Amino acid sequence: MISQVTKIITLNQALTCLLAAVGGVIFAALNLPLPWMLGAMAITLVAAMFGVPLQAPEKLRPYTVAVIGVMLGAGFTTETFDQLAQWSVSLIFLTVCVAAQAAIVGVFYVRVGRMSPVTALFAAMPGGVVEMMEIGRRYGGDERAIILAHGARIVMVIAMIAFWFRVVLGYEVSGVAPLGKGQTGLIDLGILVACGVMGSIAGLKLSLPAPTFLGPMLFSAAAHMLGWTEGSPPVWLIVCAQVLLGSIVGGRFVGVAPRFVFRAFGLSAVATVMMLAVAIGMAQVLQGMLQQTPEQILLAYAPGGLTEMSLVSLSMGADVAYIATHHLFRVILLLSIAGSVLAWIASRWTHLSQRSD
């Protein structure tokens, strides 16, 4: 057993997790928003920039996001499917929002960030980090700049959204409130574990986006809507999952020179404000038509990660099903056009840029 664990967690990864936990404790003690994930993210990011020998526990990510997926599945109800037709209009406007965000930020990255058109385009697309990097590299983009832009974007979006809702709007943003409506007994725990395991296997077999997150979430949603359980993963497990997720996001900057990190975050701060401004504007305009609050639309249209933004929405008492559906749609949309439409736009943009030079 010990040898199996050591194959998953190295000494440097254990140090990373320990530092991440310390960051979570500090943020929680200071009563900061979403403390366990943001605290873990912040301290590992700073430590990475100062050369501490960290290593993100990437092999633990599937288990981490499975826990979060099972937890979020408890937020689905039998009324969820009744609302899908109404959500279709919101999803159409999400497509418009993504196009506007990517266009504005893409131009910003070219004009201000001095990126090539291909690098700027795939760095500006809010979703499918690995896929954007791989396809962008295939068409001549700078993979390091793309991955840094996406990593910084996710960190900045989570931080800005969490602080905005806590400081400006006065929401409690803890991220640990379980969604289950009842007590979680041994039978409930067994059902939730089965949802996590079977959902992960199904997600991988079906090649779903974020398979070990989406699969468990769908299985958990089905179990809760069928009335098999009203439980949710225990709070301590949710906290551990957030700490690990934060350490993984922060650990992506290990080995990157501080000047590149600072530049990436400087550009991302401006780009994130632009993206959120588009989302906020659309939320204000569409709230009556979509019969949703501006806060809900903002969380659904914010350019954060699928797992991370679903977790943020949980802590605010928002409609997890509505928000997770939108982020899933955004990821699927971008992945479906990445190798065709985006590649064509990148080639045309590069051609036009070379002609103008």
Describe the overall structure.
By secondary structure, this protein is mainly α. Helix content is 75%, strand content 0%. It contains 15 helices and no strands. α2 packs across α11 (235-251) and α7 (129-138) packs parallel to α15 (320-356).
Query: Number of DSSP strands?
Result: 0
- The radius of gyration computed from the alpha-carbon positions, rounded to a whole number of angstroms, is 20 Å
Q: What general outline do the C-alpha atoms trace?
A: globular
Average pLDDT reading: 82
Q: Give the helix proportion (percent range).
A: over 70%
- Contiguous helical run count: 15
Briefly characterize the structure.
The protein has 357 residues and is mainly α.
SSE order and pairing:
Layout: H1 2-8, H2 11-29, H3 35-49, H4 61-73, H5 84-111, H6 117-124, H7 129-138, H8 143-168, H9 186-205, H10 211-225, H11 235-251, H12 258-290, H13 294-301, H14 306-315, H15 320-356
Helix pairs in contact: 2-3, 2-11, 3-11, 4-9, 4-10, 4-11, 4-14, 5-6, 5-12, 5-15, 6-7, 6-8, 6-15, 7-8, 7-15, 8-12, 9-10, 12-13, 13-15, 14-15
